Amino acid sequence: IHPATIAVILFTTVIVLFNATYVSEHVINDRQPGATLAAGRWLVDHPSIHEANNPGPFASVAGASSYAFEHVADDDGTITVDFAHVMPVYLAVGGWINDLVPFVADDFFVLWTAPFLSAIGLLAFYALSSRLMRAWYAAAATAALAVNMIFMVMSRDVYHEMPAFVFMMAGLWLIVDARAFASIAVLDPAAYGEQRSKLWIPIRPSRWIVAGLCVGAVAMTGVDGLMILAPVALYAAFEWARSSDKAQVQLIDASR
Questions:
Q1: Is the pTM of this model over 0.70?
Q2: Is pLDDT above 60 for 198?
């Protein structure tokens, strides 16, 4: 393991533990982070995202509702968050883990979901950066991202941008990794013997499939995730357009 990788892992652990001490509990349901946390807590004990419309002490008041920010009223009287449900589901998974560990406080792993996702995002960012630059430069870039105020805020609350960031960094890293592996395979045709005539076919398509699933999953985190997919589609079109000519050139070079 490269020393820079070890340094990134240690630094990520420290910064995540630091951010986890300031996680937002949202006593007041204020827009998306609060509504996301409420939905996640609801899913811990219920199989449906449709929450009970319980106005509490105002139940006797005609027309009273527990309708809050980022919720919509359903025809059956329940209320539902009006955004993608990926982050609430992740929070629910934290709650299920919480139920399995008896010696931790209530909602401990629910509240730690955001810092945990930020750690995965930082490691994925480093993995991508280290394929594009020297390891220590990638480590410095990761550290700069980790202490960025916007990233720290996202690490302490349940914004859907954090899982979107994780999926995007992981997807881009897998794309870069798949392209690098294919290039190595083309430049070493002897390892494939009689398969040299088929080297233009993407090597190990499973890598590309997993990369596509990660990048596509960004769209599940929020409606603005579709905006991120636009440049990825352009990149895919560019790669497709030049792949045939490039492969022919590499095959000619490999046959010498």
A1: yes
A2: no
